[in-house]
Design brief:
single chain; 6-stranded mixed sheet; alpha+beta
Length: 183
């Protein structure tokens, strides 16, 4: 999932987690990453994690990339997703970009049964409100970013936005879980 740290930080749990991702891919055990998790997957698989051109906080449209892998994961050409990040990942060797955005080109990639996202499709009303509360200073610091929304805009029409987002999340999780063992 996400977190305020960077995968480039010298934290004791980063290296073992990178190796865990590599091991999952080697053994073809489906891996799934959201935001920090997606960044960990990118770095583990040979990509880079760097500062994003602009910080993204709030709602923003992501486009489904024009390729067969992306079409296999998604039905709609675009959807509104939730964002809260200041870093971004590159697409690692062998993976395919499946989502892209105006302020962050690499919003998701797939590598076989493995799926990594920069955006957040897992949001709930409680999670949004908690992040707004704990991240209020970050929003104030970056309010001039073209991709940082004020809290009132983020909470506007929250229930229907989340309903639409959960439809997308269900597609992702259903496809990803097809690769899990049932026995």
């Amino acid at each position: 999932m996400g977190g305020p740290m960077s995968v480039n930080d010298d934290l004791p749990w980063i290296r073992p987690l990178l190796e865990l991702v590599r091991e999952a891919v080697r053994k073809d055990v489906p891996a799934l990453g959201h935001c920090l998790g997606g960044q960990l997957m990118s770095k583990a698989l040979g990509g880079e994690v760097t500062r994003a051109r602009v910080k993204e906080i709030g709602w923003g449209e992501v486009e489904v990339a024009d390729n067969g892998v992306a079409r296999a994961w998604f039905g709609a050409p675009a959807f509104e997703s939730f964002h809260w990040h200041g870093e971004t990942f590159s697409i690692p060797p062998g993976a395919t970009r499946v989502l892209e955005g105006e302020h962050c080109a690499n919003q998701a990639f797939a590598l076989g049964r493995h799926f990594a996202m920069q955006c957040h499709v897992e949001m709930t009303p409680e999670l949004v409100r908690t992040w707004l509360s704990t991240g209020s200073e970050e929003i104030r610091e970056h309010k001039k970013s073209p991709a940082v929304q004020p809290p009132a805009e983020i909470e506007k029409d929250l229930a229907p936005r989340l309903d639409r987002l959960h439809e997308v999340a269900d597609k992702i999780y259903d496809r990803w879980s097809e690769g899990l063992s049932r026995g």
